[in-house]
Amino acid sequence: MTRLAICPGSFDPITYGHLDIIQRGSKVFDHIIVAVFNNQSKSPLFDVEERLHLIKESTKDIPNVSVDSCSGLLMDYAKSKNAQAIIRGLRAVSDFEYEMQITSMNRKLNEDIETFFMMTNNQYSFLSSSTVKEVAKYRASVSDLVPPIVEDALKRKFE
Questions:
Q1: Planar angle of CA 158, 67, 63, nearest 5 degrees
Q2: Which member of 26, 58, 129, 133 is catalytic?
C-alpha cells in the first residue's frame, strides 16, 4: 500500500520553510500531494493558478511530490485521494495551539487519517509567507527565503 500524505496550505507564496517540510516529508511518505487551499479569511497576493505554478516549479526535483488545489474541507479532500496522513509544519510553540485545534477537528471529521507535525528547520523558524510578502513589498532581498522563481514573481507583483 502506498503511503500518501497531503501537505495543505495557502502557500501565498511558497517559502523555503514550506519546502523544508515537503522535502523531509518526501523521505517518509511514498507520495506527497501539496494541496493549495484558498483560505477565505486571507487576501492572497497570488491567485490559485499562480501558486500552483510556483509550487510545481519549486518542487519539480522531488519525484514523489505532486501539486493540486482544493476548496472545501481538508479531510474530504484527503479521503477522496485515499491519503493516510496530513503533514503540518510547526515553526514555534505558538503554532502548536492553533494546529492542535485544527487537528482535533480533523480527527473528529475522519479519525482514520493521521496528522504528522514536523518541526521546521531552525533557520526557517521565523519565516512566513506574510513576512516574505512584507519584505518583498519594500523591495528588500528575499533570495534566502524563497526559490528564485518565487522571488521573480514577487518582484513582478510589486513593480
A1: 115
A2: 129
Blockwise average pLDDT, block size 10, the chain, 159 residues: 93 96 97 90 90 98 97 94 95 81 91 94 90 95 97 96
What residues does each domain of the chain span? 4-157
Has 9 been labeled as part of a binding site? no
Contact criterion met (CB below 8 Å) for 8 and 35: yes
**List 53, 91, 107, 157, catalytic entry:** 91
Catalytic residue among 42, 60, 137, 139: 42
129 an active-site residue? Answer: yes
User: pLDDT digits over 54-89, tens only?
Assistant: 999 999 999 999 999 998 899 999 999 999 999 999
Cα distance between residue 146 and residue 58, in whole Å = 9
Residue 88 annotated as lining a ligand binding site? yes
Indicate the CATH number of 4-157 among 3.40.50.620, 3.30.70.120, 1.10.10.10, 1.10.1520.10: 3.40.50.620
